[in-house]
Amino acid sequence: MLDILTDQYYDIKECINTATLLSLDFVVTGDIVNDEITNISLYIDQMGEIHDASLYIPKSKQELKEIGKSDMVEYLDSKESQIRHTAPTGYSRYDRIVARDYALEYTSNATKYCKCGELYGVDYDYWNNSEYPYFDNACHNDCADYVSQAMHEGGIPIEAGKWERLKDGNSGYGPYGWTWTNVAALKDYMTSKGYWDKSNFAQCNAGNILLTSSSHIVMVTLNDTVTHRYSGHTRDRKNYQFYDNSDYQYYTIKTN
Ligand SMILES: [Zn+2]
Fold it and tell me: pLDDT exceeding 70 applies to what percent of the chain?
């Protein structure tokens, strides 16, 4: 028995880092049959728990290789490894902070009249005219166009013939010319594509969508849980405070 104990001790000793203080209490069990000790097992007492000492004997390199190989095969055969990780909605991410910053950059709390003279509170100097030229036939009616621009900046991709800004705005492009510039068409497109999820006053944070009516859309540009602000066109507003209203509809934009 002493031989076995000595062998086991030397096996275990090999895996004890010399820099680590480790106290090992061995427990040896066996059966006495005809005055002979058989079925000898060696245990280690660690922190009051008895462990099979063989667990502490390091495996050979070959054994470790085999274990690694069988773990890998098991994983490759598993269901988890067969799942494709692709974005189901066709765009990799929506960055609502980028969208918010765009919205804040291209509007103001305007104190001028629009070109057609119908609406007070429009200031084209703040609009992104170089990228999205102003068009006469819309004039001040720019709320959906402005929100579309910000959403696109945040990551929602152009879909040719379906959702894109046309030079002449909302005219002459079949039903799809409207999706960029018309509130109802924009809402239909975004929800049917799965880009928008129904939300509420509390959860709709910056970079997401507020419809104050069926024909007016703005972007939420602040929600610190106490103060809620939006920015928009068709009366240009920048970080304008709002409160919940039963007529309002909120949407959050999916991030994948
Ligand atoms: Zn106008």
Answer: 77
